[in-house]
Amino acid sequence: MCNLYRMTKVPSEVAQWFDAVDALGGANFGEEVYPGYPGLVAAGGELKRMNWGFPLQMKGKSGQLLKPKPVNNTRTDKLDSFFWRHSFEERRCLIPITAWAEAEGPKGRMTRTWLSLPETELFACAGVWRRSDEWGDCYSMVMTDAAGAAADVHTRMPVILAAEDYAGWTGGSPVEAHALCRPWPGEITLDRTDQPWAGGAAAQRSLL
């Protein structure tokens, strides 16, 4: 699953890439995106700022409400569940990224491995979004079984969309969109680093 990704292009470039209207008004974003933090999303023909993760209300042992947890990954086989169904049927989006990261190595010493598409500066992952009382507009990344080089580092990977499938994902029927939730058939580049995974926002994980 994906709990950290990069988006190194400025919004104006991303908007042009996805033929979307830049509705951000010159806002700046960090190059690394973590669960619970804002990221860029193409939805409804516009490039927007949304929070990465649907809020999941948590309760303490005595029943008190705790801070919501960002559910930032969506399993393909759970898209028809109550938590995701309406967003999948009515509010699908494109998540622009340049690479995503997975943790590798022994517990306590895990490092970041970055995955990307060779010779591709920017690509889109499938997403769903909704409005929330807690964080405003928020989105989640759809995950499927890993294949190819991605399977060397994790059992799941983001649903990567080819450019010719963008319209089918955002505007097609649920049946048509679900058919696009498959492992990426092309090559994937691995960049294994010595950068520690643990600590900070990168330690957050949530998949539902």
What does this structure look like?
The protein is mainly beta and 208 residues long. The protein has a single domain (5-58, 65-203), classed as hypothetical protein yedk fold (Alpha-Beta Complex). The chain has four helices and 16 strands. It has helices spanning 11-17, 85-90, 166-171, 174-179, and strands spanning 5-6, 21-22, 32-33, 38-43, 46-52, 54-56, 69-71, 73-75, 92-97, 99-104, 111-116, 123-132, 136-145, 156-158, 160-161, 189-196. Strands 2, 4, 5, 8, 9, 12, 13, 14 and 15 form a nine-stranded mixed sheet that branches. Strands 3-1-10-11-16 form a five-stranded antiparallel sheet, with no helix packed on it. The longest helix has 7 residues, at 11-17. The radius of gyration is 16 Å and the shape is globular. The mean pLDDT is 91.
Keywords:
five-stranded antiparallel beta sheet, 4 helices, nine-stranded mixed beta sheet, single chain, 208 residues, globular, mainly beta, hypothetical protein yedk fold
